[in-house]
Amino acid sequence: MSRRFVVGSVIPMVVALLMAGVVSLGLANPASAAAPVAVGGNPAPADHGWCNNHRTFPWGGAPVRTVRLPSIGSNGTTHCLMQAGAQGNHVAALQRTLVNCYGQNTGGIDGIWGSATTTALRNAQRSAGVSVDGIYGPQTRNAFRWAVYLDGSFWDCVPYSQLGI
């Protein structure tokens, strides 16, 4: 005896199986994706994703100045992690601050996190009084002074706590 399935009856069954977790469409599941790992191999808190962009914030009154912080997405949270090997404008945002606010040599503001950027970050972390681990995260962000720009040119360094973000 063969069974016939009517399309209208299959769809609710598939939906029920998907919701129960019995069937997967093979799509990436954020809950099972590799989570960022903090120092010592401990999982980072769930809200610490990997930085993959930078976010520009206005700062101060007229004339308006801007500050760029590493972020998740161009309009996302700045509560993120970075480490050696990262590449992109989020790395360049950090390199600008390391060069302009901490006098560090990052090997250039090129958006490529190599050994010089790691050394520069470690030196700046030491100067800022935070754990010297060579990894950028919320603790480092909060302790740093950030490069502020006026009309695209470096203007000054402002502590994160004064940015109003």
UniProtKB/TrEMBL annotation:
<feature type="signal peptide">
    <location>
        <begin position="1"/>
        <end position="33"/>
    </location>
</feature>
<dbReference type="InterPro" id="IPR036366">
    <property type="entry name" value="PGBDSf"/>
</dbReference>
<dbReference type="InterPro" id="IPR036365">
    <property type="entry name" value="PGBD-like_sf"/>
</dbReference>
<feature type="domain" description="Peptidoglycan binding-like">
    <location>
        <begin position="87"/>
        <end position="143"/>
    </location>
</feature>
<dbReference type="Pfam" id="PF01471">
    <property type="entry name" value="PG_binding_1"/>
</dbReference>
<keyword id="KW-0732">Signal</keyword>
<protein>
    <submittedName>
        <fullName>Peptidoglycan-binding protein</fullName>
    </submittedName>
</protein>
<dbReference type="InterPro" id="IPR002477">
    <property type="entry name" value="Peptidoglycan-bd-like"/>
</dbReference>
